[in-house]
Design a protein that fits this description.
Chain A is an all-alpha fold. The first copy, chain A, contains eight helices and no strands. In chain A, helix 1 packs parallel to helix 6 and helix 5 packs antiparallel against helix 8. The interface between A and B is medium-sized, with 36 and 31 residues.
C-alpha cells in the first residue's frame, strides 16, 4: 500500500507537468489556427497552461501563485509551446487522439489537484469541488476568451468537459471529508474523469439542450 | 428604529439572495439565446451570479471568497439556472418587466453590499464606492465576455447601469464616512439605484456620446 | 549619484502617472472607435489604465490593490478619459506618434515598476520578470477583451509589444538579484523597452510566424 501511494504521488507529480504541457499544446495550436506569430503562440500557451492554477491560487489566497514561484510549470509550458513554433502535428487520427488523451490527462489531474489543494487550505467539501472544477476549466476558458471565441466548455454540441471535471472533484471532496484520503484514491478519481472524457469523445456524449429549444429556431451548431 | 433596522437587515439578507438569483436568471437566459446546452446554462448562470462577489472578495483580500464558503449563493444560482433548463419565460411585456425589476433589485443591493463590505475591510470612501460599482457590474461583464459579446455596460444606446450602481455606492460610502451608518440607509440607497435604473428603462435614459461623434460616420447601434 | 537617483525616483513617479494616463487614452480611443457613450469611454479608460496594476497586486497578494487605495491613479485615468469625451485627437501623423510614444513610456515604466514591486514582495527573479511583463500587457488585454477584439499583443503582424516589456523586466530582475539596484538603472531599463518598442514601430519589426505556416492557407491579417 505504501508502495502504491508512493507510485501514485510520483505519477501525480509528473502527471501534473504532463497536464500543463497538454494545456500549453492546446493553447499553442489554437494560436496557430489564428495565424498568430511565435510571440502570440508562446503567450497563449503559457496563459492556457498556467491560468487555471493561478485562478485557483488567487481564490484560496495562496499568493504569489505557484506558477510564479515554481518555474517548472512555466518551463514545461514554454517547451510545449516552443515545439509548436517549429513543428505542426500532422492532422491525422492518431495525432488528434494523442492530443485529446493528453488533454484528458490534464483535465483529470487538475480536477483532483485543485480539490486537494482547496481542502488543504481549509475549504469545505462543496467549495473544494467547485474550485477543483474551476481549476480544470479555467485555462481553457482563458485560451478561448483570448482567442476571441465563446469558451468550448459552454458551446453547444461539444463533448462533456465540465461534467467529468466536476464528477472527479466531487468524489475527491467526499473522500477527503469522510475517509482517510490516500494518493491512490486521487489517481483513481483522475482516471474516472479521464474515462468519462474519453468516453464522451468516443460515443459523442454531450449535454442535452432544454426541451423547449426544439420549438425555437433551429440552433446554430 | 431598532425594528426598522432589523427589518432592513433581514430584507437585505434575503434581497441579496434575490439579487444572486436575478443575475443567475440573466446568465441562464443569455445561455439559452446562444443555444447552449444545460451544462452551459448552469455554468453561465453560476458565473454571472457569483462573479461580481468573487471579484470583490479577491480585491479586498477576503480569501477564499464568500461564494466558495457559503453555499447558499451557489445553490440560489443553480436553482435559478435550473428553472431556465426546464421552463422558458414567455416573451411578453410582463415577463420582461419582472426580469428587469429583479435584476434592478440585484443591482441596488450588490452596490450597497459591495460598498459596505469594502468599508468594513478598511477601504477609503472613494475606493469603497469604486469597489461597490465593480461588484455590481462584474457579474454582467463576465456573462457578456463568456458569451462572446461586448459587455452591456459598455455598449452604446443602452440604458443606464453603471450610473445607478455608482450613485448608490457613492452615497453609501459618504454615509459610512460621515454618519452613524444604519441598515435602513443602505436600503434607501439600494432603492435609489433601483429607481434610477427603472426610470432609465421607462424613460429611455442613456449616456450621451461625445458631441464630435455626430460628425463621424453614423454609429452602428 | 544621489542626485541622479533622486531625479530618477521623481521621474519614475511622475512617469507612472503619465503611463496610467497613456493607457487610459488608449482605452478611451478604443471606446470611441466602438461608438461607446461617455459612460463606456470612462469605464474602458479606467479599466485599461488600472487593470494591469490590479492584476499585479492580486498576484503578489497586495490587497486591496494600490488602484483602490491611492486615488491618484483613478483620477489620472478619469482625467485622460474625460479629455477624450470632449475632444478627439486629429488623425494626423504627429498625433499618432504622440500617442505611440506616450504608450511606449507607459510600457517601459510599468514593466520596471511591476518587476521591482514583485521583487520587493519576495518573488524570485524569473517570477518577478514574468509578473513585470504581465503588469505591462494586462491593461491592454483587458481593453481588447472588453471591446470584443483579440488582444493586440497576440494578433499576428503587430509590432513588438510583449518582447520589449519582457526584455526590460528580465534585465531589471537580473540587476535586482546580482547588483545593488539603483533607481537610475530602472530608468535605463525603461528607456531600453521604450527604444525597442519605438524601433519596432519605425522599422516594422514583428515576431516571425512558424515556418510551416507559409505552406498553410494564406493567413488572414
Amino acid at each position: 500500500m505504501a508502495d502504491l501511494n508512493e507510485t501514485a504521488s510520483t505519477l501525480h507529480q509528473y502527471g501534473e507537468l504532463v497536464g500543463v504541457a497538454a494545456f500549453a499544446l492546446s493553447g499553442a495550436l489554437t494560436a496557430v489556427r489564428r495565424n498568430m506569430d511565435i510571440v502570440g503562440i508562446l503567450l497563449l500557451a503559457v496563459a492556457t497552461a498556467l491560468g487555471g492554477g493561478i485562478i485557483r491560487d488567487l481564490i484560496i489566497g495562496n499568493t504569489p501563485p505557484n506558477a510564479f514561484t515554481d518555474m517548472s510549470y512555466a518551463v514545461a509550458a514554454l517547451l510545449a509551446g516552443g515545439v509548436i513554433c517549429v513543428w505542426h502535428p500532422p492532422s491525422n487520427v492518431m495525432t488528434k487522439w494523442s492530443l485529446e488523451v493528453t488533454d484528458a490527462i490534464g483535465l483529470g489531474l487538475f480536477a483532483v489537484t485543485g480539490t486537494v489543494i482547496a481542502h488543504e487550505w481549509g475549504m469545505s467539501a462543496p467549495g473544494a469541488a467547485l474550485l477543483g472544477m474551476t481549476t480544470c476549466i479555467g485555462g481553457g476558458v482563458i485560451r478561448d476568451v483570448l482567442s476571441g471565441q465563446i469558451p468550448t466548455v459552454l458551446r453547444p454540441g461539444q463533448n462533456l468537459y465540465a461534467i467529468p471535471a466536476l464528477t472527479a472533484a466531487a468524489v475527491v471532496a467526499v473522500l477527503l471529508r469522510y475517509t482517510e484520503y490516500q494518493p491512490w484514491m486521487g489517481l483513481a478519481c483522475a482516471a474516472l474523469a479521464i474515462a468519462i472524457r474519453i468516453g464522451s469523445l468516443v460515443f459523442g456524449w454531450h449535454g442535452p439542450q432544454p426541451w423547449y429549444m426544439r420549438t425555437l429556431d433551429a440552433p446554430e451548431r
